[in-house]
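hey team, just a heads up i'm posting the complex here instead of the shared drive bc the drive is being weird again. everything in one block, sequence lines first with there labels, then the predicted structure for the whole assembly after. its two chains so it's a bit long, scroll down
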Amino acid sequence: AQSVTQLDSQVPVFEEAPVELRCNYSSSVSVYLFWYVQYPNQGLQLLLKYLSGSTLVKGINGFEAEFNKSQTSFHLRKPSVHISDTAEYFCAVNTGNQFYFGTGTSLTVIP
Amino acid sequence: NAGVTQTPKFQVLKTGQSMTLQCAQDMNHEYMSWYRQDPGMGLRLIHYSVGAGITDQGEVPNGYNVSRSTTEDFPLRLLSAAPSQTSVYFCASSYSGGSAYNEQFFGPGTRLTVL
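-- predicted structure starts here --
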């Protein structure tokens, strides 16, 4: 089975500072990679996805992620965070017909 | 276009009771799935379906049943609730699984407490 590791369970960062949320996955076979965001008491929303092609993927709200096949990583970055970015972020992998999620990273933006 | 809808939003059960969590989507998606979300565990796949009449087990299927008689609906049944099933349940759908069209759309969730 696939496993997805989000190395940081909580990330506090000051407003307008850059942030990186880390994600590593286990499979070496072809996978599709995603980042989702969950705001309090809501379902998950897609931030961005990597299917193929360019390894740098841009998503909504100024987020981007870089796929690194050799390191099996898909880290999420934003150059300048806002208060409204405070949320839970999930990395996910799709292989075959199953989706596997990481345990989540809680991003808190400090004014 | 309502997207993915789930009912109820909240439910409290006693141990041993049964209930069905409802999920419906109006996007004509072939793939539907159920997850449970627990603190520190992320989302774990319970069951999924790749089309009407086809279901399969995910990572944590024990204690749950599903069926898919129509493309739109994918109910999750708890036959005999246990406190370990206290969780937030999310239904999701996508055009398909394992393809380039597999962005999942999530419902708002059902918060279930089993006493």
